[in-house]
Amino acid sequence: MAVSTRVIERQQRLRRAARWALLALLLLLAVWIGYAFTLQIHTVLSLRGQYHDLQARIQTLQAQNQALQHELSLAQDGEYLEYLARKWLGLVRKGEVKYILPPGGP
Question: Cβ(86)–Cβ(92) under 8 Å?
Fold first, then answer.
């Protein structure tokens, strides 16, 4: 009977060791799944932030594009071009006299 008792005790120890090994494996698997899940959440949040930044950039570029379209339509207007030539380049029509006043008034 002593032999069978030792065999039974050894089997019980092996079962306990197998249970601990399985528990450790399950714990390791849970940690790994938690890490992977956390990494995915971080990636999603980062991409969401990039998406919002790009949406804001798109709106800014659309507003700039609209302003440039308006400026392009003005550039095709002869009166506006004359206004710009007079204001920025100091040009005058033939026969007109240009007066340059000193800064600070007469």
Answer: yes
